[in-house]
Specification:
The protein is mainly alpha-helical and 69 residues long. Helix content is 72%, strand content 0%. It contains three helices and no strands. The two termini are 22 Å apart. 6% of the residues are buried.
Length: 69
């Protein structure tokens, strides 16, 4: 799961930079793909939970990711 998120984010970033859709400064950021790998794992965990725990987990994840961007 981590590898899918990490590699997918890296490929999307490289493609976006090559097509001038993403600024070049993104390529020099210290975290281009690893953070996306971890985020993929955390998001996938939301699908493993059920009921109220799923909703709380997803809300917390959205809140944390929204606060850090």
């Amino acid at each position: 799961m981590f590898a899918t998120g990490h590699i997918g984010a890296t490929l999307i970033t490289v493609t976006g930079i090559d097509r001038c859709l993403i600024p070049l400064r993104v390529a020099t950021a210290p975290d281009v793909g690893a953070g996306y790998g971890f985020t993929t794992v955390l998001a996938a965990m939301a699908f493993r939970f059920r009921g109220v725990v799923r909703v709380l987990w997803a809300a917390a994840l959205v809140a944390v990711l929204g606060a850090t961007t």
